[in-house]
Amino acid sequence: MNNYVVTFARGFGSGGKLIASKLAAELGIHCYENRILTLASQLSGLDEKVFADVNEKLRQNNSSFATLMKGIPRARKYIARTEKFKSDDVLFDYQKQIILNLAETESCVIVGKCADYILQGRDNVVSVYIEAPRDYCIKRTVENMGVTEAVAQATIKQTDKFRADYYQYYTHGNYWTNPINYDMTLNSEKVGIDNCVAIIKDYLKIKGLIK
């Protein structure tokens, strides 16, 4: 069976990262999020020719940047972005090349990083957006981060603003919550975390990407 990729965009506190992780575990494939940014940050410090050589060597050996990410731990906690968005075109280009390489060499789940935009138009890519009512997101953020409701509210607002600005900049004007960008948009409170996973798996079957 050919490779397939499921991309996730998600509102902060909606459980999107948890859904992505559960889906990847049930499908027996890797889930990538913060490790892409970490590896891109490391590679962006290299000479451009060195990066090109690494990329070409991986292609020749039919392997992916996943081999370089094995030693990078996955983030187990919420990743909040409370700073203002500042563009870094060089860093984004490294992330883009990593995402393209992953999509060409293995089945995987990719969270964030404009992966739906980078991989748009591919028949083997399913893009999902997870959102939920603010009260639900606040409750989950309080429980998972151990903060007050006021801090949770501010964190959600600031992180979602960062993600929206990030997406708009790197997609050249598109907006992050546009349902047209995605195969499906799911309300994690109404549907439930496990049911979201089940629905996405059913859709992958409909698309003929899994059995």
What's the SSE blueprint?
Layout: E1 5-10, H1 16-27, E2 30-32, H2 34-43, H3 48-60, H4 66-69, H5 89-105, E3 108-111, H6 115-118, E4 125-131, H7 134-145, H8 149-170, E5 184-187, H9 188-191, H10 193-206
Helix pairs in contact: 1-10, 2-5, 7-8
Feature tags:
211 residues
Question: How do the helices and strands follow one another from N- to C-terminus?
Answer: EHEHHHHEHEHHEHH
Radius of gyration: 17 Å
DSSP strand count: 5
Kindly state the mean pLDDT as a whole number?
A: 89
Order of strands across the main sheet: 2-3-1-4-5
- CATH hierarchy class name: Alpha Beta
- What is the molecular shape? globular
Number of helical regions: 10
User: Could you say which structural class the secondary elements and strand pairing correspond to?
Assistant: alpha/beta
Biggest sheet character: 5 strands, parallel
Note down, in words, how this protein is organized.
It is a single chain. This protein has one domain: Rossmann fold (3-Layer(aba) Sandwich), CATH 3.40.50.300. It is globular, with a radius of gyration of 17 Å. With 211 residues, the protein is α/β, with parallel strands linked by helices. A 5-stranded parallel β-sheet has the order 2-3-1-4-5, sandwiched between helices. The termini are close together. Helix 2 packs across helix 5 (89-105) and helix 7 (134-145) packs across helix 8 (149-170). 53% of the residues lie in helices and 11% in strands.
